[in-house]
Amino acid sequence: MADAEAHWYVAHTYSGYENKVKMDIEKTIVNRNLQDQIFEVSVPMLNVTEEKNGEKETKQKKMFPAYVLINMIMNDDTWYVVRNTRGVTGFVGPGSKPVPLTDEEMESMGLKEDAPNVPFSIGDTVEVNSGVWEGSTGIVRQIDHQNRMVTINVDMFGRETPVEMSFNDVDVI
């Protein structure tokens, strides 16, 4: 089970226990002096803009409810620490063998460093700078990092219509 290289692994938790599991693992890292084996524990969050009574409200929601991501070197000690943390039901992978996330999976989640840097986020108002919709403004509804595409809602005939375009075709207002 020993592997000298660190990878991201996914631990399944009871729903609602993600932040508690993160804190407990971080405490154990310090208590057992495992900083050189478990590097980061993450509960990825997403900014979601909701409209209530005509007012926009941005909230943070868990990107992957009931999962915690852990960047670590997998060995018997680290496996034991994570697996025996209260609230953890197991690692993602066949049987009891944890499978690390691939680079492609990391990029699609926006967790890999070389994921494209995007100057806007969901809920931002942007202006289209080229193409059929040039000069139109819209609200970012979806961001596809892998294909460098953004979906915005544009006003067409008095209705909000989703339109997909390249990152390069929009500017933040």
Give a verbal description of the structure.
It is a single chain. The chain is α+β, with helices and mostly antiparallel strands and 173 residues long. The protein contains three helices and eleven strands, in the order βαββββαβαβββββ. The radius of gyration is 20 Å and the shape is elongated. A hairpin with an 8-residue loop joins strand 7 and strand 8. The protein has two domains: 6-108, NusG, N-terminal domain (Alpha-Beta Plaits); 125-172, SH3 type barrels (Roll), CATH 2.30.30.30. It has helices at residues 18-31, 76-83, 103-108, and strands spanning 6-13, 38-42, 45-52, 55-62, 67-73, 88-91, 125-128, 137-144, 149-156, 159-166, 170-172. The protein starts with 5 loop residues before the first strand and ends with a strand. The strands form three sheets. Strands 10-9-8-7-11 form a five-stranded antiparallel beta sheet, with no helix packed on it.
Give the key terms.
SH3 type barrels, alpha+beta, Alpha-Beta Plaits, 3 helices
Topology (elements, then pairings):
Elements (H helix, E strand, L loop, with lengths): L5 E8 L4 H14 L6 E5 L2 E8 L2 E8 L4 E7 L2 H8 L4 E4 L11 H6 L16 E4 L8 E8 L4 E8 L2 E8 L3 E3 L1
Antiparallel strand pairs: 1-5, 1-6, 2-5, 3-4, 7-8, 7-11, 8-9, 9-10
CATH topology of the largest domain: Alpha-Beta Plaits
Structural class: alpha+beta
Q: Between the first and last Cα atoms, what is the distance in angstroms?
A: 51 Å
Q: What does the overall shape look like?
A: elongated
How many β strands by DSSP? 11
CATH class placement of the largest domain: Alpha Beta
Number of domains: 2
Strand content: 35-45%
Sheet with most strands: 5 strands, antiparallel
